[in-house]
Amino acid sequence: MNALRGQMGLWKLHLAVIVIGVVAELIGIRKIPFGIGAILLLPLLYAFVMAALMNPNVMPKFGKFIGEKEVKAASPLIVVAIMPFIAKFGTTIGPSIQTIIEAGPALLLQELGNLGTIVLAFPLAVWGLKMGREAIGATFSIAREPNLAIIADRYTLKSPEGTGVMGVYVIGTLFGTFIFAILASLFASVEWFDPRALAMACGIGSGSMMAACTGALTEAIPAMKDEILALAGASNLLTYATGLYAGLFIALPVVEKLYNATAGKRDLAATKNKEA
Amino acid sequence: MANSTIAKETTRPEINLVDHAVTLVIVCLVGLIMNTVGPAIPLADGFVGMIVIYLISMVGLILTRFSPFYMPSVAWISLVGIVATLPWTPGSEWIVAQAKSVNFLALATPALAYAGFAIAKKEIEVAKHSGWKLIVIACLVFFGTYAGSVLVAEGILRLQGI
Description:
Chain A has helices spanning 2-8, 11-27, 43-54, 68-93, 97-102, 104-109, 116-128, 134-139, 145-155, 160-190, 195-201, 207-220, 225-261, 263-275; strands at 30-34, 37-41.
């Protein structure tokens, strides 16, 4: 029963999570009008912010109750805490299997839509912001753990490419849930798109971002809650399965070629000028 | 944190089932509190639902540990949840009914609280060093992946006419 003793030693952390969670749940879901749409604020967002404010690394002055020991222990606990959530999502997929099969082609092909990162972010990074090889790491994927592994393996994380992927990874960790809650709220409120398409796009291979994304969608379109959960869950599972390979064999080679064909030449010219 | 996560992704981790069984009980109890406070689902219903969720997670972990090939635990847990609730699985109706008493957003709340507590010094440093350029790029990356998937899915659904 070492495990039990270990967790009991973390009572402060668990207690803090319970208190923060209860406060967040009591505040509940809030709707903020924004332009033509509305942004939905979810309890999980307040919980993240409140916990971050009690984190000694973020707010050194308040770091009395939670210490470095709790911070270290919290990291593996995220993975365990997301398991019941993933299990719950699984139970929404089974009963809707007919919907999933019907939407199968869309579900499979929208995985390729993840390459939209390149279409949108790469040109701005290279031409707009004149970034160097950081752009390769930063724009080839949404920089979740499997993608970090790809860059670490190919360039190491200390390389410029590594700096790029780490930057997006950390920003995703800190702000990803907010960004996806906002994105989903706005896309849903313009009413141009099929809610099923919006749901599938939520499955990006990150449990917490999917939670924020589907949470916002189900609040905006409550009538389709079951379908939204099932399609998002199925898409997320598909991304778990295919994300690593899509990044390794499609996205990264494409970004590398694009970079070498465009900014790579610029870098080369710059080095030549320096030498001359 | 980043380095250890990579190690977990690339090599098959040894899962200590007893440790996980205990930790999962705590996490599920925390989730049950959220489920009762926020969505106001009666405690007795939520309790049974959470036991079902707990068992699905544990079966998934056992498969992660003993299956002949490696898949991440979240993928196994997902699959167990799916198979247990397929219409042709015996008893699936009961499982679906119980799982309905557990609200998915209530389960995400504690996970994000742990995530807030897990922010490491190094991550704050990376965020500070990355500068505004990477923040702009990150927002576009997320917008791009979402918009890209929405557009492809929308297009295919229209082609199929469903």
